[in-house]
Amino acid sequence: MVPRIDVKTAIAKKKYVGELDVTFDADGKLIDIPYVEFASPVRAALRYEIFADDKAEVTGTISFRLKGLCSRCLAETEREIGYSAEGVFAPMPKDDEYGYSNGFIDLGEFLRDSVMFALPARLLCGSCADDGSE
Ligand SMILES: [Zn+2]
Asked: 72 C-alpha vs ligand 1 centroid, how far in Å?
């Protein structure tokens, strides 16, 4: 089930600010690093604010764990990834805004994009990351 924000109800209740905490399994195909996979579901701790023009801003943190082989020395490794995500949703979106209709914001595309942006180009184990020459 794709998490969504019920904008219509929020406006009717004059509840323009809210929080949303979702956990979901991300699509493993999003990962471009060889021998690396998700080691946990993705957690998104989000806050939204709805403005007078019906635009809504969503901000928050995306976090998950990756596990697999270090992209450099092939040692098994695991790493916690954290990412600050933000998106603007509008009934008539322009540029990099997300669209929404019927009073519901569907967070699916936004969450997928955020996971993609959060993913590092490679996964390094502790000692490879520490030697600074990344
Ligand atoms: Zn390594």
From this structure: 5
Q: Could you read off the pLDDT of 113-132 as tens digits, one per residue?
A: 999 999 999 999 999 988 76
Overall number of domains in the chain: 1
Ligand 1 centre to CA of 66 (Å) is 14
**How far, in Å, from the CA of 67 to the mean position of ligand 1?**
12
Let me know if residue 41 belongs to a domain. Answer: yes
- 123 CA from centroid of ligand 1 (Å): 8
| C-alpha–C-alpha distance, residues 53 and 11, integer Å | 11
Q: Please return the burial class of 56, using the count of CB atoms within 10 Å of its CB with bins 0-12, 13-18 and 19+.
A: buried
